[in-house]
Amino acid sequence: MKILVVVGARPQFIKAAPISRAVERWNREHLDRRIDEIVVHTGQHYDYEMSTVFFEELALAEPRYHLGVGSGTHAYQTGEMLKGIEVILVKEKPDIVVVYGDTNSTLAGAMAAAKLSVPVAHVEAGLRSFNRKMPEEINRVLTDHLSTWLFCPTEPALKNLEREGITRGVYQVADVMYESLIHYSERAEKMSMILDQHRLATKQYAVMTVHRAENTESTEQLERIMAAVMWLADHGWRLIFPVHPRTRKLVDSLRPAHENLLLINPVSYLDMLKLERNARLILTDSGGIQKEAYWFRVPCVTLREETEWVETVERGWNRLVGANTDRIIKGSLEAVEARPTELAGGEEMTLTEGSAVIVAVLADSAR
């Protein structure tokens, strides 16, 4: 059996790692039903901090194909990926194409496969923010409707698909990002030196990330976010901000300068886990980081008006504040004083082998 895995952005590398380990285990235990995993890297994230270091830290095999698409508009990126993936599909003739999450790489992989009648498996299916202005939301919806197998990380995701009439080939499995967090977080504690490098004391700083189009394509949006950050810095908060390449030019134009604000380059996965786990607070517009904050039991303030991870809000670990200066300040102060609901019964701990379930389902489809 041959599966072709399409990745292109750092969250996808993190999700792909548990699946690759599960494929290796499957191959050791099923010598007569081995799976050939072909990894295609679209190059959506392409520099060292956003790509190469993740393959090194996660011990991922080098991609068999690298499209090198790079940056560009959504239409340009998706179009270039479609062309490149189609050539590979025609050459390799895989049995299944596996895509992850909600990026342009996700949609391009699903569309290219569907056009050639190759079944698609979508890992992290069913998530919805219900905001069609978000490119990620469009990618999620279209990919789900093109997929043969849909692996949902939460019950709300499962219900979202039901409401859209998608009920066949749907599975609720553990979140593969949680598997990565469990697998790598202790290694991060031992190996990452980022707290020492920046003189950060445990639970005495906040970490923030900003990369969504709604916050990085509008100077006004980012100005309001940075105004709140500067207020927190003025009031004694120490903040560290790994700046996404998409955000760098706009941040530099605002010239935020404060002894309590550290602007640094993007960090590796292990460094980010170390920063998140030991933070007093996380401010972010990233979906993955919201969930990691939730798992680490670190209060989170989300710089968006909606989230696909509704359980993080329902249990009090996450606050939605948008790009409103006053709401960001108020939400940050409230978050660190709150007493959120603990996760019930170690619920994720009972579901840490979602990758094994996914691989078994795909392998059985070849029978």
How would you summarize the topology of this molecule?
Layout: E1 2-7, H1 10-29, E2 36-41, H2 48-57, E3 65-66, H3 74-92, E4 96-100, H4 104-115, E5 120-123, H5 135-146, E6 149-152, H6 155-163, E7 170-172, H7 176-191, H8 194-197, E8 206-209, H9 213-216, H10 219-234, E9 239-242, H11 245-254, E10 261-264, H12 269-277, E11 281-284, H13 287-296, E12 300-302, H14 310-314, E13 318-320, H15 325-337, H16 354-365
Parallel strand pairs: 1-2, 1-4, 2-3, 4-5, 5-6, 6-7, 8-9, 8-11, 9-10, 11-12, 12-13
Helix pairs in contact: 1-7, 1-16, 3-4, 4-5, 7-12, 10-15
Q: What is the gist of this entry?
A:
The protein is of the alpha/beta class. Helices cover 49% and strands 14% of the residues. It has 16 helices and 13 strands.
Please, could you describe this protein's structure?
- By secondary structure, the protein is of the alpha/beta class.
- It folds into 2 domains: 2-174 and 352-365, Rossmann fold (3-Layer(aba) Sandwich), CATH 3.40.50.2000; 193-346, Glycogen Phosphorylase B (Rossmann fold).
- Helices cover 49% and strands 14% of the residues.
- It contains 16 helices and 13 strands.
- The chain has helices spanning 10-29, 48-57, 74-92, 104-115, 135-146, 155-163, 176-191, 194-197, 213-216, 219-234, 245-254, 269-277, 287-296, 310-314, 325-337, 354-365, and strands at residues 2-7, 36-41, 65-66, 96-100, 120-123, 149-152, 170-172, 206-209, 239-242, 261-264, 281-284, 300-302, 318-320.
- The strands form 2 sheets. Strands 3-2-1-4-5-6-7 form a 7-stranded parallel beta sheet, with helices on both faces. The chain has a 6-stranded parallel beta sheet with strand order 10-9-8-11-12-13, with helices on both faces.
- α11 links the parallel β9 (239-242) and β10.
- α1 crosses α16, α4 runs parallel beside α5 (135-146) and α10 (219-234) packs across α15.
- The longest helix is centred in the N-terminal third of the chain and has 20 residues, at 10-29.
- The mean pLDDT is 91.
